[in-house]
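Model: Ready when you are.
Researcher: Fold this.
Model:
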Amino acid sequence: MAEFKAFVTLRQKVSWVLAGVVFLCYYAFVLGIGLFPQVLAYRLGPSAITLGIVAGAFLILLCIALTGLYTFLANEHFDTRQAQILNKLQESGALKELQNGMA
């Protein structure tokens, strides 16, 4: 049972860290728009591409990458580990007790 709680805690920590990274990046971007619009309006070379467009594209790619990272971790590690722990609990009979509310 302690092993399952440790696993759930680890999975939640990973989720919160990834969500925190996305939140901080978006917050910094929005803060940059509000406080330094001239910086984000800076044109990169003679084209119409601005620093804000590059930063926005970076945010989108960051979100895609972090979602992919979590999906990879969930498929390769979390699901496997969860199945192992549930099998172990089922073999010991603790899962049946939990389902019946005896634990």
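Researcher: Now this one.
Model:
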Amino acid sequence: MTRRTLTLAGLAAAIVVLGALSLMAGKVWVPLSVWLDPMNPLAPILFDLRLPRTLLALTIGAALGMSGAAMQGYTRNPLADPGALGVASMAAFGAVLTLYFGAGAQQPWVMALAAMIGALAAVGLLIALAGEGSSLVAFVLSGVILQTLAAAGVALALSLAPNPWAKDEIVTWLMGALTDRSMADLALAGPMILTGLGLLLTLGPALDALTLGETGAKSLGVDLGRTRLLLALGVALTAGASVAVTGVIGFVGLIVPHLLRPLVGARPGGLLVPGALGGAVLVTAADIVVRLTPGAAEVKLGVAMALLGGPFFLALLLSMRRRLG
């Protein structure tokens, strides 16, 4: 059995174990025997709170993990990630506008649509700003520009918020969390995320060919325009739908490919499925940890991922700097 097969099997087993643990763990421990006893007083906690939260953690983790792997493969840039390059921030800005005007709270699909438009615009601007044959520096700077624009827009919305409740709603939502999510949220985001994952999966051969450069990929018959469009749509659907229901949960797409690449190989197309499985494992594990932290208030998942991803991002930059001499 190869290392790749073992890794995939290990990730699948981890998903099963963490999924079961996520259904049980929290301020109130819910044994799995409650599944067989719907009249148990703990059944509403299991079915109405823990089940949708666990399914959302797995779905959104898979979406962010695969989109990060796809962006790193397309850009041939190890720092590419929907969060680090401003895609999630632009999606959040789109969703914040709906909260500001009150449309997002009344019609959740409006927030999802606005988030996806923001993510789609971000991917398009990122590719346009960085240009063909873009370097690592060009992509990072383009991402900084997008992050700055999105942050400025969000800050403007906060400063002009019509009332303190709207401002508090925007701030709380921006921190990112899976708390109190329902099956309705899963029904809203799930189909869009699955569609995005399907689009990204079709890019495997093109991403492998792009390791030879754009000229080499063209010589192998890769349609770069079609590849770029599918990437933009796939990332917009996965990242936009994720941001719409949970807020900003960053660094998943940055961390997971780096952890898995030594185990499954550096072939970009071969990293898509492991990236999805790894993202599901990371987000589910992090969500279990945040709900078990002591204290009356729960740490927001987006905050926890930022605390984990920030040092990882710094270590990655220092490692690259050492390699470049």
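Researcher: Key takeaway?
Model: The chain is about 75% helix and 0% strand.
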